[in-house]
Amino acid sequence: MSSLETSLYLFEPHPDMPGWTRWRVTDDARFNGVVGDLAVRRDGDRAVIRMQPQARHSNLIDTVHGGALLTLIDNALFIGPRFLGDVGMGGATVDLSTQFTAPANLDQPIDLTLEIMRETRRMLFMRGTLEQGDTMVASFMGIVRKTS
Fold first, then answer.
1. Is residue 146 part of a domain?
2. What CATH number should be reported for the domain holding residue 69?
3. How far is 35 from 43, CA to CA, in rounded Å?
């Protein structure tokens, strides 16, 4: 098992996207997997996480449900730091503030960009955006309390 693998999820080279890493939950019974397989890459000191929306992520007006976007963001608060090198990172979301700015469509990928603003011994402060093409879908700030 590589340093980025656990029994619950796996980072592996993405088979369809050169230069990207695929993140996937290995246990389909876990809620974290509801967003599906994600593509992850590093952009300097930021992580970019790509989600391809599916019908199961839609709301009644055929756009991506806000709850699916919030689930993507919450997952990113843990995937991003782990991908950026905090291999032992685990914890609990303490705060997540999200501002939705536009609807997301089901027919194109959503890119989440995450950056770590500050890290202390017990806390991790992050911010980021969700974009679909040239449109900003949401911005967010999140705080995670690390496990000991």
1. no
2. 3.10.129
3. 22
Q: What percent of the chain has a predicted confidence (pLDDT) above 70?
A: 93
- Residue 87: predicted pLDDT: 59
Q: What is the CA radius of gyration of the chain?
A: 15
Out of 70-74, 119-123, 140-144, least confident range:
119-123
Planar angle of CA 31, 35, 40, nearest 5 degrees: 120
Average pLDDT over residues 85-105: 89
Handedness of CA 145, 98, 127, 9 (dihedral sign): positive
More confident residue, 107 or 84: 107
Written as six digits, the tokens of 135 are 């449109």
DSSP states along 70-130? HHHHHHHHHHHHHHTT-TT--EEEEEEEEEE-S---SSS-EEEEEEEEEE-SSEEEEEEEE
Identity of the residue numbered 6: T
Q: How many domains does the chain have?
A: 1
Which residue range(s) make up the domain with 59? 9-88+103-115+130-136
Q: What is the pTM of this model?
A: 0.92
CA-angle at 137, arms to 63 and 80, nearest 5°: 110
